[in-house]
Specification:
Blueprint: H1 7-23, H2 34-46, H3 65-77, H4 85-96, E1 106-110, E2 125-127, E3 135-139, E4 147-150, E5 159-160, E6 168-171, E7 177-179, H5 188-223, E8 225-226, E9 229-230, H6 235-264, H7 267-295, H8 307-319, H9 324-334
Parallel strand pairs: 1-3
Antiparallel strand pairs: 1-2, 2-6, 3-4, 4-7, 5-6, 8-9
Helix pairs in contact: 1-3, 3-5, 3-6, 4-5, 5-6, 5-7, 5-8, 6-7, 7-8, 7-9
C-alpha cells in the first residue's frame, strides 16, 4: 500500500480540518451551544461525507475506506459533536444489499456489548450516533439475509451519555421494525467486509482523538509555568508526551492499513487487519488520553478541562465493534488459534 495521500485526499483532509476548526467545540461549555453544533451537523451533511459509502452497486462505493478514515480522524481530533460513523455505516449496509438510499437519516444498532450488528429477532440494542437519526438498521433475524430498520423517530429520547460528543440511544424490544426493500441478501463475506469498515472508522476516530488530546496537553505544557518556567520543560512531562506521541503514531500506521484493507483485501483478511488495528488503537487511546489528563495536573480532573471529553470519546470508540480483547480473539480465530489459547486473550469475552 502507498501511505501517501493523493491530491484529492489532501483536499478532503483540508476541508475536514477547516470545518472542524471553525465549528467544533473549543471548550466544554461549547458543547451546550446548539446553534454551533447544528451548524456543524449541517456542514457535515452538506459536504456529502455521510454518503461517502453510497454507490450504484455492492462493489462501487463513492469513496474508499481511506477517504472515510481521513474524515473520521479529523472529526475525532476536533471532538466534532455530530453524527458520522452511524449514518455512513448505515449507507454502506444499504449499498451492500442493493437497497435504495435512505429517505431519512439512519444509523446502525449494535448489540448491547457494542460488538455486532443487532438483529430484528431481538432488536434491543444501542443506536450509535443517535442525534438526528430517525431510524436504526438491524439484520433480519440471525440469518443475515437482509436488513430492517427500527422505525422509532425519537431515538434521542432515550439517550445514553457515554460520550458527550456523540449520544447513543437504547432501542427497546417494542420498537416497530420496517422492511428495507433490497435486491440481494447479505452473506458472511458482506458482514465481514462491513465490520472491517466499521473497525477502520473507529480506529481512525481513535487516532484523531489521540492527536487532539496530545495537542491539548502540549499547549497546556507550553503555557503553564511553575518556578518561572513552562512545565513542558520538565523532563518527566516531556517523557509522558513523547510516549503518547509514539503510541499515537503507531496507532495511525495500523489504522491507515485497516482503512486501506477495507477495500483492497478479501473480506475476512480485511477484518483480521482491522481487528488487529482496533486492538492496538483501543489500548493506546486510553493511555494517551489519561496522559493528557495527567499532564494537566489537578485541572485535568475538572469538568472545565477538555481532557475528560477526549477520554470519554476514546472509551466509547474503543468499544464500538468490540474492544481490545474481543478483537485479539478475532485475529487469533482468523489464524486458526482457538479462543483462550493465548494468555489472557479470552478473559471477559463472549
Amino acid at each position: 500500500m502507498d501511505v501517501r495521500y493523493s491530491p484529492e485526499q489532501e483536499a478532503l483532509r483540508s476541508s475536514a480540518v477547516r470545518i472542524v476548526d471553525r465549528l467544533g467545540p473549543g471548550a466544554v461549555a461549547a458543547l451546550d451551544d446548539t446553534a454551533r453544533s447544528g451548524s456543524l451537523g449541517e456542514a457535515v451533511r452538506d459536504s456529502g461525507w455521510l454518503a461517502l459509502r453510497q454507490g450504484e452497486g455492492p462493489g462501487t462505493p463513492l469513496a474508499s475506506g481511506v477517504e472515510v478514515a481521513i474524515v473520521a480522524e479529523e472529526l475525532g481530533r476536533g471532538l466534532a459533536d455530530t453524527a458520522f460513523a452511524g449514518p455512513l455505516l448505515a449507507a454502506d449496509l444499504r449499498r451492500r444489499c442493493g437497497a435504495a438510499p435512505a429517505d431519512a437519516v439512519e444509523t446502525v444498532v449494535l448489540d448491547p456489548t457494542l460488538c455486532e450488528l443487532g438483529t430484528a429477532a431481538a432488536p434491543g440494542g444501542v443506536a450509535i450516533d443517535a442525534q438526528g437519526a430517525g431510524y436504526g438498521l438491524v439484520l433480519v433475524g440471525g440469518d443475515a439475509t437482509g436488513v430492517r430498520r427500527l422505525g422509532r423517530r425519537r431515538l434521542g429520547a432515550r439517550s445514553l451519555q457515554l460520550d458527550l460528543t456523540r449520544p447513543t440511544a437504547w432501542v427497546g424490544d417494542g420498537d416497530p421494525v420496517e422492511e428495507v426493500p433490497s435486491r440481494r441478501g447479505l452473506d458472511d463475506e458482506d458482514l465481514a467486509a462491513w465490520s472491517a469498515l466499521g473497525l477502520a472508522v473507529t480506529c481512525a476516530d481513535l487516532v484523531g482523538v489521540m492527536r487532539g488530546a496530545i495537542a491539548l496537553a502540549r499547549d497546556y505544557a507550553i503555557g503553564r509555568r511553575q518556578f518561572d518556567v513552562p512545565v513542558g520543560s520538565f523532563q518527566a512531562v516531556q517523557h509522558l508526551l513523547a510516549d503518547a506521541h509514539v503510541a499515537m503514531e503507531g496507532s495511525r500506521s495500523v489504522a491507515l492499513h485497516a482503512a486501506w484493507a477495507a477495500d483492497a483485501l478479501a473480506p475476512h483478511e480485511a477484518l483480521a487487519a482491522a481487528a488487529l488495528a482496533k486492538a492496538y488503537c483501543a489500548r493506546a487511546a486510553r493511555q494517551v488520553c489519561e496522559t493528557s489528563v495527567q499532564v494537566h495536573g489537578g485541572i485535568g480532573n475538572t469538568w472545565d478541562c477538555l481532557a475528560h471529553v477526549f477520554l470519554r470519546r476514546a472509551l466509547l470508540s474503543a468499544e464500538l465493534f468490540g474492544g481490545a480483547e474481543h478483537n485479539v480473539t478475532r485475529v487469533l480465530a482468523y489464524h486458526g488459534v482457538p479462543a483462550g489459547a493465548g494468555a489472557g486473550t479470552g478473559r471477559g469475552l463472549r
